[in-house]
Here is the input.
Amino acid sequence: MSRTGCPNTEPTTAVLDERIPFPRTDAPLPCRTNPRWFSHDRILPAQGQAQEDITRAKQACRSCPIAAGCLKWALAHPGSTAVGVWAATTATERGALRRRLRERLGEDWVEVVARRDQAARQRRRQERWNPPPIQQSQQAQRALSRLELELIPTRPAPYEPWREPITPARAAANHAALTRAVAAKTAA
Here is the structure.
């Protein structure tokens, strides 16, 4: 696929590494709406327009929602990204980034990055299903809040027969309230 979403008609010899997939989004991206900005390879002294296009492309990539995934994909697929601006980087900048990744993570740096991404996805999925435990200070704060609410004298909620049936506890609370009211009335 090309950046514009159209199938490439030219045969490619580059083998795609499936460990780092190309990021997908339905958002309208500048590389799809203005592909000319992103198609320059090098800047020659006589190419003023190319410099402007590369500057616009890099600026557009800074606000792209899939720029991080695009950069990983571009770095992992040097044969497919030998020309143009990908994730606000030129071919020369991507070459330097690949060299640094090789020095830092080893020759199979793509596998290391793919494993880290997989671990991060699993961690996010796990947190979504099993939220992290509440810290002790938060538990203590919640317990104190509950105790404060219990110590504040409140009036019993009125009995609403259309919402809940009367329970023995509710009957005892109603009887106590009536007894207090009658005692206050006779004392006055």
Remarks:
- Confidence is low (pLDDT under 50) at residues 5-11.
- The longest helix spans residues 109-129.
- DSSP finds seven helices and no strands in the chain.
